[in-house]
Amino acid sequence: MDYVLLAEQFFNGFQLGILLFLVAAGLTLIFGIMDLVNLAHGTLYMFGAFFAATFVQLTDSLVFGMILTLPTMLVTGIILELGVLRTLYERDHLDQVLATFGLIIFFNELFLIVWGAGGTGINLPSYLIGTSELPGGISVPDYRIVIIISGLLVALLLYLLVSKTRIGMLIRAGASNREMVSALGINIKLLFTLVFGLGAVLAGFAGMIITPITQAESGMGEGMLILAFVVIVIGGIGSIKGAFIAAILTGLIDTMGRSFIDVALMSFMDSVAAETAGPAISSMLVYILMAVVLAIKPSGLFPPKGA
Amino acid sequence: MPVIAPAIGQEFYTDVFARIMIVTIAAISLNFIMGYGGMISFGHAIFVGIGGYSVGILASHGIESAYIQWPIGILMSGLFALIIGAISLRTRGVYFIMITLAFAQMMYFLSVSVEKYGSDDGLTIDSRSDFGLSFFDLNDSMTMYYLAFVLMISCLYINFRIVNSRFGRVLRAGKSNNERMTTIGYPTFRYKLVAFVIAGMMCGLSGLLTANFEDFVSPDMLFWTFSGELIFMVVLGGMGTVMGPLGGAMIFLFLSEILSNITDAWHLIFGPFLILVVLFARGGVDGFLKKYEGPK
Amino acid sequence: MLKKFILAAPIAAMLSVPSVHANDDTVRVGINLTLSTPASILGLNSKAGFEVALKHLGGKVAGKKIELIFEDNQFKPAIGKQKSEKLVKKDKVHFLTGFIFSHILAASAPVGLKAGKFVISSNAGHSMFAGKKCHKNFFNSAWENTQTPMAVGQMLNNEGVKKLYILAPNYAAGKQMITGLTRTFKGKVVTKALTPMSQRDWSSDLSKIKAAKPDGVFVFYPGAWGPAFFTQYAQAGLHKTIPLYNAFSIDGANLPIFQKRNMTHLLGTMNANFWAPDLDTPANKRFVPAFKKHYKGQFPAHYAAQAYDALMLIAAGVRAAKGDLSNKDAIRKGMEEADFESVRGKIKFGKNHFPIQNFYARKVVNKNGQWQLSKVGDAVLKNHAPTNSAECKL
């Protein structure tokens, strides 16, 4: 086995995990606190990507463009919450699924018309193109290190926000017992709006930070949305810790599966069969993981208390 | 309806109505578990796919007899429903929605990967299921039309009978209060599983018809958006009403046809429509009409 | 519920207002393309190709008006089939054409063929129709799916590539590309990586490529895959050491986007195709500038070139039958003879009605500030017919 390759793939899987966490964190918070199934969360990821690309092109600066994107995401999230999603909190999950599905198809079409079928993208400045050598002959693209570090920083900020501040206390209380929070006389509507805005910023941050790599295209949110749902369901809905662990696990399993499953299969079947079966199994791997977790623990790995 | 379409005298509309009736069967089956049993399956297209691929795969091996294709298609759908149901029904609420979606994704990726059966290019079916009867040839579009009609009516009837039976009452009671039913000694899990299997087989039937009608099966049949569309049809027609799925499927298919003829960017209209239906016309068209009719 | 039946009747009646079709003064051409979803970038290019051809024909052939009826299949085979039914049964078209994607063609072609219409694929090159399922009324104005990668394989031999790393999405077209390529490529294939269709991040594959150290990388990443993959390839620094070759991943439809994003590392990359915008034929010299005038100043992609030829082919058929649209045999014979100036020169059809044609290597170049695909040298494959042509029993 090639250990350098193994280490590099581990790194890649970790990076995917961080990205998944950023999307899943908002999703699981919104789900846990407002009991809202928001299929349009992937759309917020797409918003982040397109806003960032547009701002970077306008300002001709990666840093300025990205700084502009975050407040824009907050405003977008708040507008969506006030306009549509707020009315859905009291509805059942089915209504929520349908209405947010409506948002998805509307925005996908809108973005397609505004930015064209080819989508848009961000070019990295030259100082971020290139690779760094880590000990042991492992080389990693510089920008991916940026993604991991900034993603971990955001995760840390989120942790501090949720565990050390008053608003975080309310969020935690809301996730495990909604009635109690409103009984305390807290302005629950404002709290909900803020949580949604926070989720939008997190998803937008993820979309923004990945755009220099994947580029932005209409419909990019759905693949991410489904994976993020897998993550929060594995982690236990409403649990940030669960989302983090499940995101890293999903990222690693997905990347490792894609890299090594055909090799592993070739050890006991012929190469043609392995080449066919490998991609099939690796595409299914995260879903198999989810089905197995739910079959054993029907409320995910870390179900929040009181849920 | 069987009178309307042929009466218009255009083959095109015969096809339009046949397609509606075939989709309706899938919607009836979803309504059965979702509207009466409270099981929101986001992977119902799986069974359309299994039914469809049963015809496609057998036909590609030269087995064209309906007496082999149809029982296998329905049994396979039931078998998969049993396995998927047994695992998924351990969860509830959103977890159930997501685990059924996960199974649908697995089946989708499986069908995309199997090159032998066309991968995502799909399988073309040269000859429709052969019933060996000279007066009953599915290649004739009127025969196909009436078969779809009879099967749709049968499914409506079966659905009606089951939900009004003792089994149906337990199922419905389990939807509104699962704990109580379990406490008073009803094994709701088993009831739900049986319902899930029946729904799977009925949906498989829709898949068998789809494959015959389209002469083609592809992974597209079990993509998650189709599962979403089925949910929408059921909600649109009015969940938990006997005739709801028919109305829902009809409105959905007509609307998408009409809108897409107006503009290629019809999703710009359709998305907000979806949201408005949810926000203002809960209980679907049936509920909407009832609201404005007043009690009778 | 009765209400719904009552509701249904007027809707059905409204839809069924019969359009006037009795007179056959008009040649109706139904064009089934993918005009929405991100995949529409190819369909829109193709649509413009049909429109330019209509303009060059003066909207008429053999004294009859030509009417183009476009339908959008939304990138779904079932919808595509539905639209084909509408074109054939409701609009009563004489010719059914278009089709960008093979699976949509596979679902739709029987609708036209069963109704006795001519079906002309202007892009989708499903092998099935070149071989076992060839049909007297089926024509293809483009190519069979494996031909282009076969040309790329030959091009790689000419370029001296000995060790090749292959990447393609894990779906039918991706696998067909690999089949075609490995048929002609003589060197060693280090890895055939079939990546999941949803993949937009190639980090793990790029690491593997770096470890494998091939002489060249071949990719088939059409549509939205392309920009993402090419960007990451450059970010990983691989473009400096390992040349990148492709099939159907860089073309006239997406080059303007690449240029706008300033992806200069793509300059010099090569692919192969039966056609190039600078191919020296009289029809091409008329077509290319007319297209640029018609469509946002862009160079046509091969999608448009094939669409142009598809309508010219239909016109040749109608001309041969002297405008008698009921004389199917005369139309078919006219189309087989293909007596018209194609953008690729004279078209010659095999008995399976697929063109027997040359394939050329093409390179991305910057010509007067506009990027384009320029033909390199002589044909890499000459008078090439689909490999499975012999399976066609016509």
CA gyration radius of chain B, whole angstroms: 19 Å
Structural class of chain C: alpha/beta
Number of helices of chain B: 13
Number of DSSP helices of chain C? 12
User: How far is the N terminus from the C terminus of chain B?
Assistant: 26 Å
How is this structure best summarized?
By secondary structure, chain B is mainly α. Chain B contains 13 helices and two strands, in the order αααααβααααβαααα.
What are the SSEs and their pairings?
The complex is a heterotrimer of chains A (307), B (296) and C (394).
Chain A: H1 3-34, H2 41-59, H3 62-83, H4 93-115, E1 131-134, E2 138-141, H5 142-164, H6 166-176, H7 178-183, H8 188-214, H9 220-235, H10 240-266, H11 271-296
Antiparallel strand pairs in A: 1-2
Helix pairs in contact in A: 1-5, 1-6, 1-8, 1-9, 1-10, 2-3, 2-8, 2-9, 3-8, 5-6, 9-10, 9-11, 10-11
Chain B: H1 4-8, H2 11-36, H3 45-60, H4 66-88, H5 94-113, E1 123-124, H6 141-163, H7 166-176, H8 178-183, H9 188-214, E2 216-217, H10 224-237, H11 244-262, H12 267-280, H13 284-293
Antiparallel strand pairs in B: 1-2
Chain C: H1 2-15, E1 26-33, H2 40-56, E2 60-61, E3 64-72, H3 77-90, E4 95-98, H4 102-114, E5 118-121, E6 138-140, H5 147-159, E7 163-169, H6 172-184, E8 188-195, H7 203-212, E9 216-219, H8 225-235, E10 244-246, H9 255-260, E11 270-273, H10 282-294, H11 302-320, H12 328-337, E12 341-342, E13 345-346, E14 357-367, E15 370-384
Parallel strand pairs in C: 1-3, 1-4, 4-5, 5-6, 7-8, 7-9, 9-10
Antiparallel strand pairs in C: 2-3, 11-14, 12-13, 14-15
Helix pairs in contact in C: 2-10, 2-11, 3-4, 5-6, 11-12
